[in-house]
Amino acid sequence: MTLPPRMRRLTPPSIAAAVTVAMLTACGASGPGGNPEATNEPTDGYPRTVEHFLGSTEIPAAPERVLPLDAAYVDSTLALGGNVVGFTTFAEDVTSLPEYLVNSDWNVGTSDEAVPVGLLWDLDPELVASTDPDLILSAQVRHGDGYEQFSEVAPTVMSETTGATWKENLVLTGAALDAEEEAGRLVTEFEERAAALGEAIVEANGGEAPTVSVARFAGDAEGVRLYTPKSYIGVILEDLGLEPGPGVETEAEDIVTYHSQERLLDLDAEYIFVATYDDGGADGVQESKEEYMSAPLWSELEGGITEVNDEYWISGVGLIAAHAVLDDVAEIFDVDPQR
After folding, report:
1. Where does the Fe/B12 periplasmic-binding domain start and stop, copy by copy (predicted)?
2. Predicted model pTM
3. Strand, helix or coil at 68?
4. What is the pLDDT of residues 138-159, one digit of tens each?
5. DSSP letter string over 155-206?
6. Could you tell me how many helices (H) and strands (E) the chain has, helices first?
7. CA distance 254 to 129
8. In percent, how much of the chain has pLDDT > 70?
9. Per-residue pLDDT band at 299 (split at 50, 70, 90)
10. Pairing outcome for strands 243-244 and 211-217
11. Max CA distance (Å), the chain
């Protein structure tokens, strides 16, 4: 099973609408008016039918073994108290979930049995089946081609994409785990924390929101990546109320723009956050980064440059990862983390 290396950018719907749809979907499994007695259905919320991007999936009983095939759904499953039994990786030598995810205060689930089932873009069907899941979660942009195969293994729910839609994906996970209200509460809690943190940063900055940019070295031939407001990290920065740097293309439809050595000044802002994809030395990412950082224009950047953790600033795409970003931001700006 394969998938394209780059994720498409899609505009996320409103969180409130997503919560409403998820709750109506869950109620639909209990008969007219959401009354379980109307059809003699169990009162524990199952069976339930979840509407998702690729169709309609019936989940017969409360999932006890969840197989999330994308980082966004590993994150959301753990945030909602689910049991993760498998996960995909970006490198073949990865055998465990990242530390920031496992040890987070926002992780209320379990992952003691979790094992890798292959690379994100090259799953091992036998490993997938060996986890004996009773629910599979992913996105069409990741694994849509395998939807029918996965559905033969376990009830499968897929969003359209990941990244900027991480809040909607949390709500979708809630629909599958009978945790719609908790998913909505977690979204509200995050947004309130981000807003309070942003206000503290503005106050510490003399009453004005500082400008920020997020760049990533990932070995791209097109150049260093600069993240737009349409990305996962862009959504977090927007929730914080921080201003994009002048070189950030705020009207761009893609989640990133690419900048050659001749366009390095586009990265400039009062605060420049730099992430680096860990390729294990295989794809020349570190060499490319060193080349760019030794280019003449790099030394002309005026903003303060801070190296950040690529695992959750860029790849995490979920609630737990987003809270880890807020922790870093509070430390960088030396303000109360609002935890």
Report:
1. 65-337
2. 0.87
3. strand
4. 999 999 999 999 999 999 999 9
5. -EEEES--STTHHHHHHHHHHHTT-HHHHHHHHHHHHHHHHHHHHHHHHHTT
6. 12, 14
7. 35
8. 87
9. very high
10. parallel
11. 72
